[in-house]
Design goal:
Layout: H1 2-18, E1 27-31, E2 33-35, E3 38-45, E4 48-54, H2 56-62, E5 63-75, E6 78-89, E7 91-92, E8 96-114, E9 117-134, E10 140-158, E11 165-175, E12 182-195, E13 198-213, E14 220-236
């Protein structure tokens, strides 16, 4: 999870920068990013629970693959932004080895309601492949795959445009029992424009998801918090 953890948070951190309204024509943004996330919570596969408590250093050591990207487009008061994350991990737990593959794709519409605020509305799709090789109480291999979609609503607050230094806050909440019971994220950032077409942004991100399905021997649960620093660049054109 080395790079994956580092990559996850930046997508959110860059969202406000990508959402800026620069003119009445279409504007676009592309944001590569890194996310130094830690991971805390638990996963249950076919009734077998594995607790997860990984620091940022642990995630780097256990990450097999990580990739993510963010894009945005805007015209006037309306816009759309998208974020994609894919992470493969290999984690040793108290009951055996857990190898989760996590994909998160978010798409949201934007509506400017004030010079300093946008509201967001969209959906977050989560894909999870989890393989658990048990060592206790009985050696066995378990595998489970789940996909779910959560409706989301939120907001973006930011400092006035036209300043070289800027700050923003992105937050949303979703799930409501449609997919997960609850999912939410928050990300405050600060940044500086290096030129009209590029800026550097840094901040902190929290991304929490509580999803469960099935019961008894078929119980599946993903209750995980990702949180950590974010850093990246936003390219506008």
């Amino acid at each position: 999870m080395k790079r994956a953890a580092v990559f996850i948070a930046l997508a959110a951190a860059l969202s406000p920068a990508l959402a800026e309204e620069k003119s009445e024509g279409w504007t676009f943004g592309v944001a590569p990013y890194v996310f130094g996330a830690s991971m805390h919570g638990s996963m249950t596969i076919k009734g077998h629970e594995a607790n997860i408590d990984l620091s940022r250093g642990d995630i780097f050591d256990h990450m097999d693959f990580g990739a993510m990207a963010m894009v945005a487009a805007r015209k006037g008061k309306w816009g759309v932004m998208g974020d994609a994350i894919w992470v493969n991990l290999g984690v040793d737990t108290q009951v055996g080895k857990l190898d989760p593959a996590l994909g998160v794709v978010s798409v949201a519409g934007l509506r400017r309601v004030a010079s300093f605020a946008d509201v967001t509305f969209g959906a977050r799709w989560t894909h999870l492949d989890a393989d658990l090789d048990l060592t206790v109480p009985v050696p066995m291999s378990l595998s489970k795959s789940r996909d779910w979609v959560d409706p989301t609503v939120g907001f973006i607050l930011k400092t006035p445009e036209g300043r070289r230094w800027h700050a923003s806050l992105l937050a949303d909440v979703g799930g409501f029992g449609v997919g997960s019971d609850l999912t939410w994220q928050a990300m405050p950032t600060v940044g500086v424009d290096l030129a009209k077409w590029v800026s550097i942004d840094a901040g902190w991100r929290w991304l929490d998801t509580d999803y469960e399905s099935g019961s008894g021997a078929d119980a599946f649960k993903y209750d995980i918090m990702l949180e950590g620093p974010v850093l990246g660049a936003t390219f506008r054109f």
